[in-house]
Design brief:
Radius of gyration: 24 Å
CATH class of the domain at 3-67: Mainly Alpha
Structural class: mainly alpha
CATH architecture of the domain at 3-67: Orthogonal Bundle
Length: about 110
């Protein structure tokens, strides 16, 4: 992934940053607005890394598998919530016990 993609969607990547570097302060990270040099400096200060070490860790993080769209799960949850309005009320067929051909409860 390119840093420009991360920078353009900085707020969406902050959880991934915190997961990778638990020692960073989220309030500070939020204020960096995707500025890589400032992020590098913050990593160095927070974790005791040289600028080169911080840069290597950032590069490694960029090469690691990350969600294509880290905000997608938020949108998925919202879409699922909205779809509830499309489900008619009443009995849930999936929750009803299975019945045999005679209408008697089936032995499972």
């Amino acid at each position: 992934m390119l840093w420009s993609e991360v920078s353009a969607n900085w707020s969406a990547y902050q959880r991934s940053v915190k997961a990778r570097w638990p020692g960073v302060d989220l309030d500070t990270i939020d204020g960096l607005d995707g500025d890589r040099a400032a992020f590098n400096a913050h990593l160095g200060k927070a974790l005791g890394l040289t600028p080169r070490e911080a840069d290597e860790q950032i590069d490694e993080w960029l090469r690691a598998p990350l969600p294509l769209d880290p905000a997608s799960s938020v949108r998925d949850i919202a879409a699922l919530s909205e779809s509830r309005a499309e489900i008619p009320g009443g009995a849930n067929d999936m929750a009803a016990p299975a019945r045999g051909r005679t209408g008697a409860l089936a032995d499972n």
